[in-house]
Write a structure and sequence with these properties.
alpha/beta; three-stranded parallel β-sheet; 7 helices
């Protein structure tokens, strides 16, 4: 989004990850464990509202962001990590009125759906990586015997970036 001229705001669960996000070019980044009101933080970070939202958290976070979307905004839903390990179903809060009143386009997606676009995307991303305009981080774990720990890092926040297990 940043490479296409958008203002990019992110949220992470540690100060270290917030600094990482700022270091790779985010316009603003916040530690959701330390901030006050999400609604107030979004108003500060996005005073003109939100046009695009990439959601992999779900739950209350999803609802609050929807309330601050601009008319005709777009929402990509690729996950709901806030609910993956829930021991009981979350209390459903209505969001359809937010989608309707803001006339939002909300679409869930799985990466496999875009398989035909991968060659073009990989070519473009490769160029951006070479130029240094696209930055990424890998969390490398050595040994297949540590695979369970590597997987769990995805849910505990112990990783920064893509988790890779090497034998």
């Amino acid at each position: 989004a940043k490479l296409r001229g958008c203002r990019v705001v992110g949220f992470a669960g540690s100060d270290k990850k917030v600094e990482y996000l700022k270091g790779i070019g985010y316009d603003a980044a916040y530690n959701y464990k330390k901030m006050g009101s999400l609604a107030d933080t979004l108003k500060e970070a996005c005073p003109k509202g939100i046009d695009m939202f990439f959601d992999n958290v779900g739950g209350e976070f999803f609802e609050v962001v929807l309330s601050q979307m601009n008319t005709f905004g777009r929402v990509s839903v690729c996950g709901a990590i806030s609910m993956y390990n829930a021991t009981e179903p979350p209390k459903a809060r209505p969001v359809s009125h937010l989608i309707l009143s803001h006339q939002l386009k909300v679409e869930g997606f799985m990466v496999k759906r875009w398989e035909t676009e991968w060659p073009t995307a990989f070519k473009e991303m490769k160029q951006w990586i070479k130029k240094g305009t696209l930055k990424y981080n890998e969390h490398v774990v050595e040994g297949f015997d540590n695979m369970v720990d590597a997987f769990n890092a995805l849910f505990t926040g112990d990783n920064t970036g893509k988790v890779v297990v090497k034998k």
